[in-house]
Amino acid sequence: MIVTYNKEQVGDVLMLTLKNSGEAKLAVERKGKVARVYREDNQETVAWNIFDASSFFAIEGNGQVFLTDEQVVRLNQELEREGFAERLVNDREPKFVVGEIREMVAHPDSDHLNICQVAVGPDKTVQIVAGAPNTRVGLKTIVALPGAMMPDGSLIFPGALRGEKSYGMMCSPRELHLPNAPQKRGIIELDDAEVAGTPFDPARHWNE
């Protein structure tokens, strides 16, 4: 669940994005201050909009925000009060973490993409399709996992590139809007001592 808030540009609306709707046609069901956004073809909920959001609790920040468990409970109470059966689930896991490329094979339908198996925790490996020229086995980099919001506002969801599933993105310094980021293509390269799964810390992981 990706939660965003921008009072100046959008108004007092808390936007909770659950899934990538792709090209599907969407519809909206609104009850009181709650609007459910869903796909018309299969009725699947892809987002919730909470209007007059500051009436429920104070919201700090602009862009992606992170809710406490107590705040999610409050929103679920409002969903229940308005008659919605679904409930929100809070996800507090870090979405930008150190990743280590453990395996890499060439994409069968591309001359520049690679299919990588990337460790993003002690017991977690995800498949990521990448096209950076410096991608290589053993490289440690920063991974944006599904549920992340990039500095440019784009959202990371599970997807596929030319038929191969991809569960995140290995990031370049430019994509992370890091200061003095080189303009050439390539994912960020971290020290070999970094541990997969460590949350991204710009002050620690970038000192250019």
TrEMBL record:
Family matches, as SUPFAM superfamilies: Nucleic acid-binding proteins
Keyword Transmembrane in record: no
Record PROSITE patterns: TRBD
CDD domains: tRNA_bind_bactPheRS (cd02796)
RNA-binding recorded as keyword: yes
Keywords tagged on the record: RNA-binding, tRNA-binding
Pfam families: DUF4479, tRNA_bind
Segments forming domain TRNA-binding: 90-201
GO molecular function, one term: tRNA binding
Name of the protein described by the UniProt record: tRNA binding domain protein
